[in-house]
Amino acid sequence: PKIVQVRKLYKIYDMGEEKVYALRDIHLDIRKGEICCIFGPSGSGKSTLLNQLAGLEKPTRGGVKICGQIISRMDENELAAFRQKHSGFIFQSYDLLPHFSALENVALPLMFAGVPLKERNKKAARMLRRVGLQKRMSHYPNQMSGGQQQRVGIARAFINTPEVVFADEPTGNLDSKSTKEVMEMMVAFAREYDQTLILVTHDKDMAAYADHIVTLHDGEIVQEEWKKEEEILI
Ligand code: ADP
Ligand code: ADP
User: Fold this and answer.
1) Ligand 2 pocket residue status of 144, Cβ below 6 Å
2) Sorted alphabetically, which keywords does the UniProt record give (predicted)?
3) Residue 190, H or E segment
4) Residue 232: predicted pLDDT
């Protein structure tokens, strides 16, 4: 089944005299459980596309349907509720709350979902153990390396078992060792519950982990490929 359907999607930035076509006539289907990589050079529209899929920005024209709901027609409040219920986010800059411990950061989505304190702490501790941070639960973000902070970010993104996890250059600030750890953790989590992972990157090595690869150029999809099962890592 398809979890993401994009039809005739345009995002146009009106810069006074000129119009910037950040996305032009995008047509894209992503199946449930896919690891989908969006590639392309800087300025090709990758972040803009991810933001439309994630319901963080509204398209200029066209439709985006996710988990059976047409999010391109939702207002800001509906979008916020939709994101909280269905999706997780991983950012290049980790975006952890600086005055919250690793445990508190990971537990945050459960707090928004109304889960009682004891239960969310227990679940957050379990997630942190799974990303290898059992000894870092009460550390604050500035007491952790980049790789560790992103592992906290992964634990936070997956703790609610969202249907879709969106990641924008999740390894953009990491060295090659941490990059591999972070990629393998994201993919392993997603595979475990058949969750869909959509990630934006300009790192071609990421293709090894993807089963669906979309390449953008100047706001248009110029290439799309699906890998055979035996070619996929993990
Ligand atoms: P990528 O993620 O591939 O680097 P982006 O999606 O960030 O590309 O940007 C695509 C194009 O849209 C670029 O030309 C960029 O300058 C433009 N753009 C992105 N966001 C805005 C904005 N808020 N206002 C104006 N132009 C923007
Ligand atoms: P990793 O291999 O996960 O990227 P590093 O080699 O960068 O980790 O860090 C090694 C150790 O130093 C880690 O256990 C981490 O707790 C600690 N550390 C790293 N950066 C900082 C920092 N900015 N402040 C305090 N401790 C740090």
Assistant:
1) yes
2) ATP-binding, Nucleotide-binding
3) helix 176-192
4) 65
